[in-house]
């Protein structure tokens, strides 16, 4: 099985049967991917996989299908995911902060995605309102979905890993409020995805209330233990922003798309799509300030590259192209911030539909 080409089991008769299954479905688009899924299923049967492993695979695939169907109608709507404690009470100032942020983003045209539970999750749903809320619930014996989110905008999952995938995959921005182990797990997962380039660049806001110490204490540990030991780079601290102001949090998320639109790798080159091209003087400053992440040549302006044209991939947008050090994701975030601050950048606005789609796409999935 491992030596067989993709889309084949190695058994011609079995392959023909799998093709017949696709024909009967009927499968029209992306048949190569669907065939790969069937080949994997056939491989599990041939491997004699244990029943528990099959149950995990079955549940995960089923849950992902349900979540894909939930999100599909909202593909062209920008989304923000809000994480935080299920134990936060409605009279807690953190609840109010979350509700205000969710309301502001919903008013700006965004949808708010939460884990559909109580506490901070309920605050996010309350602020956004039922038409602007999406819930990805985890089934727990001691917790039920909050009543602010209901079908068809709610999906429930057995596994945390499938839930985290859907809470992160579809969104163009993230806000994290103080919480317990689960919230910290989600925050570190987000930072890991951005640090390694497994997710497209996105704003992460760590929101607290005035006078609160949660995120500053967390950052103290990050700086004094993780950074000081050389376990992360100073650049990585640019991947998040700590604030105690819901308005600043809102502007951080919306402002990320002031000029930046999306990225795509074309071969070894990184293409950064923008809303407005930098002037010649601005481009000189960019090359001066970010020469450390350019592995060859310079940051250059360009039109849509041939593969982008063939895909009709935002061909109308101006672009910058560079040979980029992929280990420097924190510096890439700083470059995006610099592009958003250019005097030539357009006024602050929420991302359009295309930007929301691009922002929610893992960077590795958009590589030629």
Short key terms for the protein model shown above:
368 residues; alpha/beta; seven-stranded parallel sheet; four-stranded antiparallel sheet; disordered C terminus
Number of domains: 3
- Oligomer, anyone? single chain
N- to C-terminal distance? 26 Å
Strand tally, please? Answer: 11
Write the layout of secondary structure elements.
Elements: H1 12-24, H2 31-47, H3 51-71, E1 79-83, H4 93-107, E2 111-114, H5 120-128, E3 133-138, E4 154-157, H6 160-169, E5 173-176, H7 181-196, E6 204-207, H8 214-227, E7 241-243, H9 246-255, E8 260-266, E9 269-274, H10 280-289, E10 294-302, H11 306-310, E11 319-324, H12 329-341, H13 353-359
Parallel strand pairs: 1-2, 1-5, 2-3, 3-4, 5-6, 6-7
Antiparallel strand pairs: 8-9, 9-11, 10-11
Helix pairs in contact: 1-2, 4-5, 4-9
Report on this structure.
The structure is a single chain. Helix content is 43%, strand content 16%. The chain has 368 residues and is α/β, with parallel strands linked by helices. The protein has three domains: 12-72; 74-255, 3-Layer(aba) Sandwich (Rossmann fold); 260-348. The strands form two sheets. It has a seven-stranded parallel sheet, with helices on both faces. A four-stranded antiparallel sheet has the order 8-9-11-10. β8 (260-266) and β9 (269-274) form a beta hairpin.
Summarize the structure.
This protein is an alpha/beta fold. Helices cover 43% and strands 16% of the residues. The protein folds into 3 domains: 12-72; 74-255, Rossmann fold (3-Layer(aba) Sandwich); 260-348.
